[in-house]
Design goal:
With about 425 residues, the protein is mainly alpha-helical. Helix content is about 55%, strand content about 5%. The longest helix is centred in the middle third of the chain and has 27 residues, at about 155-180.
């Protein structure tokens, strides 16, 4: 070899290029050395995640694995240099794997000392080099499973559970709406509350239908993203868990506090549906119609806070989060639909301004907090997360980092769509 491996940390870009040529990776010299100025220290710190992800984005699996093997040999011969550079072994090995510890192959658990108190990753046996591509992640019950870096387990069974959860919450919400309708304040005794927006902007009769139309368009956009996204199971699971949680909170607020009707145009009066069976039938009617006036559903008393705003906002955030940052047109359309939908809800005088504001604030904060925690693996696997956010910990415990925006055609035909979308 032209360059001595004993002084890799002092290699220049030209010496790294010579090493790549000697190892049979000459085609990557321009990318690694010329474009990204890879020298000796950065070569020692290179990981498989660096090769696969941006800005390098290598796509040939055989080349990636062979280059990683060559890097492992180089790194093992330069452990002292790694320590001098302040690089932990876990930083330099492929996939960020620590070099020591114990992997129990019999029961699929990781044993040994944790690298950190939260137990998010455990050390692997240094002699077991075949486990380089494995990472141990904690389940919510404290056990661990083997994961492959760059691959996200869809865990369809958890997605089914989240679907049942949101299905139940929507049914429960419909039943609470029936109870609330029975308790709606009398308009003659409790007139509409003062509201700056409603008092300043005249009512537009067709505005609420337009708000629901904006919601339907966002729903179709969200369904298209789910259909084409490679990690659709994880995304749908997150959508269901967030939607169900916000609507469960809405059940509490509208049951506890009954606001007066926001406009005289609303013909709302306390209405009794008789026995429990009558209430269940009414709840099924609301649930089957999605609570939308476009389907003929008319509800009263469910003002704190706006369910339409929750759905529109959550769909907008999911569309913009799980599409590439360069899709500016899609993001603009999504935000325009969200903002116009909110405006139409207020212009129709179907909700107080505070209803819409609280709905928007709660939905956006919950979405941002959830995704921030989901992308923070140290907290994700911690005992505190399992205590305070048990559902989050259950759904996200095996999601290895941020979900990349990758797309593919989910069907075998037509063939050109697989090539186009992929």
């Amino acid at each position: 070899m032209a360059a001595s491996e004993d002084i890799v940390s002092s290699w220049s870009c030209k010496q790294v290029a010579r090493w790549l040529q000697d190892e049979g990776f000459g085609e990557y010299v321009e990318l690694l050395c010329d474009q990204h100025r890879l020298d000796g220290p950065s070569l020692l710190a290179l990981t498989e995640a660096d090769l696969r992800g941006p800005p390098l984005g290598l796509s040939v699996l055989g080349d990636i694995k062979r280059l990683i093997i060559a890097l492992c040999r180089l790194q093992r011969r330069n452990q002292t240099r790694l320590e001098e550079l302040g690089l932990r072994p876990a930083d330099s090995l492929p996939g960020g794997l620590p070099p020591s510890g114990e992997w129990n192959r019999d029961d699929g658990t990781c044993n040994g000392r944790d690298r950190s108190s939260n137990g998010s990753e455990l050390r692997l046996r240094s002699g077991d080099r075949s486990a380089f591509d494995s990472v141990c992640h904690a389940h919510s019950n404290g056990r661990y499973r083997q994961q492959v870096p760059g691959r996200l387990d869809p865990e369809v069974w958890k997605t089914i559970i989240s679907s049942i959860y949101v299905f139940f919450v929507f049914g429960f919400t419909s039943f609470v709406m029936v109870i609330v309708h029975e308790r709606v304040p009398d308009m003659r005794t409790y007139p509409p509350l003062p509201d700056i927006f409603l008092d300043s902007v005249p009512r537009i009769p067709w505005a609420f239908a337009m708000a629901e139309a904006c919601g339907l368009i966002l729903c179709y956009m969200g369904l298209l993203v789910l259909l084409l996204h490679k990690h659709r199971s994880i995304i749908f699971r997150r959508l269901c868990s967030l939607m169900g949680t916000v609507f469960l909170l809405r059940c509490c607020t509208m049951f506890v506090t009954s606001l007066s009707v926001p406009g005289q145009h609303l013909k709302c009066a306390s209405k009794s549906y008789g026995d429990s069976w009558g209430k269940i039938q009414r709840a099924l009617l609301i649930w089957s119609g999605g609570g939308m006036t476009l389907t003929g559903v008319q509800t009263c008393g469910d003002y704190m806070f706006s369910g339409h705003t929750v759905v529109i906002t959550l769909l907008n955030f999911f569309v913009t989060e799980y599409t590439p940052r360069t899709w500016n047109l899609i993001h603009t359309i999504s935000w325009v639909l969200n903002l116009f939908g909110i405006f139409f809800i207020l212009a129709a005088h179907e909700h107080y301004s505070i209803d819409v504001f609280i709905a928007f604030y709660i939905t956006t904060r919950l979405f941002l907090y959830y995704h921030t925690l989901a992308n923070t693996r140290a907290f994700q696997q911690s005992r505190r997360a399992r205590i305070w956010f048990p559902m989050f910990s259950f759904f996200e415990c095996n999601v290895n980092g941020p979900v990349p925006n990758q797309y593919h055609w989910p069907f075998s035909r037509p063939a050109f769509m697989r090539t186009l979308v992929g």
